[in-house]
Amino acid sequence: MIKTVGMISSYGALESRADWLWQQTPHPFGTWGNIQMQALAEKPDFLLMYQFDFPQPVQQLSVLDRVRKKQKQPEFNIDNLLRGVSKERIIYLLREPPLEEVVEINKRNYQQAEKYCGYISGPDDFAPTPDYMPAIWYHSNSFKDLNEMPCPEKVATCSWITSGINRTANHRQRLDFLQSLQASSMQIDFYGRGLQKWVKTSGELNNKWYGMTPYYYNLAIENYAANDWYVSEKLWDSLLAWCLPIYYGGSAADKLLPPGSFLRLPSLDEKGIAYIQEMTSTSDAWYAAKDAIAEARQIILHKLNLLNWLSEFVTQFS
């Protein structure tokens, strides 16, 4: 019997998304194996709390914030969000990295989740169950297209799709590296939102596919590379577009993907720039990696897929 999985998240863009993850399955309405992903279902069989930030306790707020909360907000009741799902069937997955600036928030979220959730995981050592975040991706192509398409024509050298976010030290390090790359005059096309005025950008993209697919290489640079768990859609998106990622991140990718399916950027400094320059000077590395890229794509689509993870989780209740 198909079980319904609902979802709540602190990502504002997902609050009213009825079709969340539907592009990650070949079947209608979010069906994968024994589950159907129905984020807004009123009475789901299971509930996924996906990067959900529990409200900060009132006693930890400033005096002014306490007054505002009392005046403008009704008392928060978590039970209203749980939709009647029992604790053992509620899943808490934290997907953001444990950056120094948010570690305490993450720890507090885990502590709160233990009251309501039967399974709690995140990409950090202090999570109740440390593990990688199952794969999501941001291409709008159908699953069938991604699964069956031949490799598209490659006509350009290298791209990097990033953003101008600078709120943490890691974000600022990435922007410094972007500035150094741009000064090197290498053949790299930069895309992204909110980029600083000094970036010679090709503009924003509604679909990352068009900023990746024509390129042999793509820079996939994580915001965090200091543990064995964190890996994000930056790598999945790059491989699904048949790019050879030049990847900066932790060791999780080595455990999840076949050897040779990505290049590892050694550092975000002059050594890293020299490495990119060497690898992108010809398309030889891409051709050598083409079979490994094809294998990695199938692993992402069928094994690492968050829908597949949820289906396997639900199976234990059969």
Commentary on this structure:
With 318 residues, this protein is of the alpha/beta class. It folds into 2 domains: 3-131, no CATH class; 143-304, Rossmann fold (3-Layer(aba) Sandwich), CATH 3.40.50.11660. It has helices spanning 63-72, 79-82, 103-116, 143-148, 169-183, 233-240, 252-256, 270-279, 284-304, 306-315; strands at residues 3-9, 31-32, 35-37, 46-50, 90-93, 119-122, 129-130, 156-163, 188-193, 215-221, 244-248, 263-264. The protein has a 7-stranded mixed sheet with strand order 2-3-1-4-5-6-7, sandwiched between helices. A hairpin with a 2-residue loop joins strand 2 (31-32) and strand 3. It starts with a strand and ends with a helix. The mean pLDDT is 93.
Entry summary:
This protein is α/β, with parallel strands linked by helices.
The assigned CATH architecture of the largest domain is 3-Layer(aba) Sandwich
Spatial strand order of the main sheet: 2-3-1-4-5-6-7
Distance between the termini: 9 Å
Helical content stands at 25-40%
